[in-house]
Amino acid sequence: MVMDTSNDKYKLTKTRDYEDKEGKTKDMESNSQASTTEPHINSYSELLLSVKNLVFRGAPGTGKTYLSKQIAANIVSNGRTSEVSELSEEEMNQIDFVQFHPSYDYTDFVEGFRPSEVENNQIGFTLKPGKFKQFIAKAQKVETVERQDNFAQAWEKFFEAVTEAEKTSQGYNKLKTLTGKPMTNMISYDNKGVQGIRKKGERESYNYDQIYKVYRGLPGVPKGGLDNYRKAVVKHLKEKFGLKDYVAGEVKNDKDKFVFIIDEINRGEISKIFGELFFSVDPDYRGIKGAVNTQYNSKEKLYIPENVYIIGTMNDIDRSVETFDFAMRRRFTFVEVTAEESARNMHLNDDTKRIMYRLNNAIIEEGHLNQDYQIGASYFKGLDKGTISKGNLWDYKLNPLLKDYFRGERLADEKMKALEKAYFGTSED
Predict the structure, then answer these.
(1) Where are the alpha helices (DSSP H) in 226-269?
(2) pTM summary value
(3) Is residue 351 within a helix (H) or strand (E), and if so which, with residue range?
(4) Homologous superfamily assigned to 2-111+253-337
């Protein structure tokens, strides 16, 4: 498999374990029942657990969707199985699936007003959660017990007060240090979605993330510098804005993981579909620290729990799809599933592999295309099982697809003849 991230290039084989930052192998949790999961499924699963958001990209028919479901089954069953059919009803409830398309939007995914019947058979509109919001609500229910954390709500009130003070005076002047010294002329800022405060005319600042860490009893920055000022902000939030003492709670069941699969993720306008969750979907902002107000609900913050993992699939040679913008791309790790790899994953027999490889080599050598245009093993499964003939597979599936590749080209007919010859091979094959 070939994994392409914004910063690194990886090579990961079926037999190699994915290693954590300490270099120690992260084994999938297992229960008393032995796992029958294949090594490449475990490798992908461990990667997803590490990066939170994963997109499989590749040529047509490489089994990206099926692979996604296998990984989801492996994760929610804690390594017991990669077959969805072998999951319990409770485990099935930890997986959900949606397919993006051009008309799919925010109201389908997050929330929106939907027609509903009201009094006297009249039609009104009711705010209803979308597919993803319903899903993360299930994950939130098992995340913690007795959790107490209203920092996001208290901060929002405080930030608004500081912002408003800038309009009428030199800034906010109600803050005091832990020793009682006034912190004068404080103003607000928002830098690429990260909010904070600083003294007017000075560069030293105290941002949301740092103060939130201090609130939870952690250092604001690795060395803890200026934490007394951050503690002063926390104290002020408690005294003036209703901030409650932080209670982490206990994880109800750390084995409860939830996997949301987005098929054809680049077929929808992804930034529009995610909306405010554009921020929360970032792996670094999972949990309450990434809570946001939605378009239709300013009273309740929405966040993506730590135990939610997202898998997307995309065929990036499809000319009809939307652009996957770079800001959202940074929030996902991209893995290429090659046609050759799909043949191994789907266990094609040697004869079928030979036919598939011959055609795919010709696509590059005779068709002058790259490997993104090679054809995956899903197209050849029927041939492998004997449910479709070699001729019918060509006439009804492969030929129409390949014609689309070369439509409008001057040498299209010559290329198609070369590919057909490669597919059928010689009399010896």
Answers:
(1) 227-240
(2) 0.69
(3) helix 350-365
(4) P-loop containing nucleotide triphosphate hydrolases (3.40.50.300)
